[in-house]
Amino acid sequence: ENNVVNVYINGQLHCICSTNFKTESLAKNDIAIFVPNLPTLNLLQYLRLAKSEQSNNLFKNSLTGTKLGCGEGGCGACTVMISHFDLRTETIIHRAANACLTPICSLDGFAVTT
């Protein structure tokens, strides 16, 4: 069972997990983050995640440029670009997405640009 979501955010690898895992294999600038409620977390919540005083395992993203507007995907305040490599066409596909509606656990292997 793999409880780790690997997603690049603004070019930096974020290894997000719902359980503790070994971080020895991470590069120097990679980020390992423990998020206990991973399945319910959306991309907007993760981007704006603030460091908890009780837990040193939560990383302070503070990428506050992506805003929460309506929370329903209608206003566009939370729009980000999600990219992935399409093996069939051997090209990189870029799509606009509403961060308030995108579950973080659905982004394994993707790149997000805010």
Which sheet architecture does the biggest sheet show? 6 strands, mixed
Mean model confidence by pLDDT: 77
**Low-confidence runs:** 51-58
**Cα-atom radius of gyration:** 14 Å
State the strand order across the main sheet. 3-2-1-6-4-5
* Number of helices, where a helix is a run of at least 4 consecutive DSSP H or I residues: 1
Count every beta strand, where a strand is a DSSP E run of 2 or more residues: 6
Secondary structure: helix percent: under 10%
Distance between the termini: 30 Å
Silhouette: globular
The helix/strand order is EEEHEEE
Instruction: Tell me the structural class.
Output: mainly beta
Strand content: 25-35%
SSE layout:
Blueprint: E1 4-9, E2 12-17, E3 31-34, H1 43-47, E4 79-86, E5 91-98, E6 111-113
Parallel strand pairs: 1-6, 2-3
Antiparallel strand pairs: 1-2, 4-5, 4-6
